[in-house]
Amino acid sequence: MHSEQELLWVKRLKSKDEQALCEIIKAYGPWVQSIIRKKLIYLPEEQDECLNDTFLKVWENIDSYDPLKGSLKKWIGAIAVYRSIDIFRKIADSLEELPLMSEECSTDYEPEALIIRKEFEEQLISLLNCLKEEDRSIFIQLFFNGKSYDEVAAEMGLDKDYLYNRVSRGRKTLLNAKEELL
Predict the structure, then answer these.
(1) Whole-angstrom distance, CA of residue 70 vs CA of residue 182
(2) pLDDT at 26 over 60
């Protein structure tokens, strides 16, 4: 159900009425900010940028809003969610470019980059904590310590097929946990 106010805002935004955008920000800003905080909980410095980007996207893309698909509020919320995910992925991708070995690390890196990397590692650890202890150990050995399936199977006294099965199930668990996190 759409309120008359939302329909009026949409009409005004389509005619590029900046005051309408200000009214929407005042009405929905705190709600949108709470969505962004939930998605970017470990990246507080990115939250304001995401909020601004969200409302800029609303302004730029109002013509693509379809009232038959849902309310304006839900549409704006979806924009906030997707923008948060984009920002998180951008930060995560930039972290992959940082060296992992301490002897490769330079003191030239910005403190912000190191803090973001630490926050990303904390998120990764909390994600791994959703796995059973045995599965978590398998994932750490395979994907963080770089061991082969043969090595891990031999060290843990497991059949290689069983190991593949555990990794497959663990990936599904991680994907579900990741969806809840994002």
Answers:
(1) 22
(2) yes
Residue with structure tokens 């803090």? 115
Q: Are 149 and 143 a contacting pair, CB within 8 Å?
A: no
What average pLDDT score do residues 110-128 get? 72
Number of H helices, E strands in the chain: 8, 0
CATH topology (fold) of 131-182:
Arc Repressor Mutant, subunit A (1.10.10)
Token pair 């919320």 in the structure block, residue? 77
How many angstroms separate the Cα of 67 from the Cα of each of 1, 4, 26, 53?
A: 9, 12, 21, 22
Rounded to two decimals, the pTM is 0.54
DSSP string, 60-115: HHGGG--TTT--HHHHHHHHHHHHHHHHHHHHHHHHHTS--SGGG--TTS-HHHHH
pLDDT of 78 above 80: yes
Q: What is the mean pLDDT of the chain?
A: 82
C-alpha pair distances (Å), 14 with each of 24, 117, 165, 167:
13, 41, 53, 50
Give the type of residue at 1: M
Separation between Cα atoms, residue 21 and residue 58, nearest integer Å: 8
Domain layout of the chain by residue ranges: 4-96, 131-182
**pLDDT at residue 103 tops 90:** no
Nearest to 81 by CA among 26, 32, 22: 32
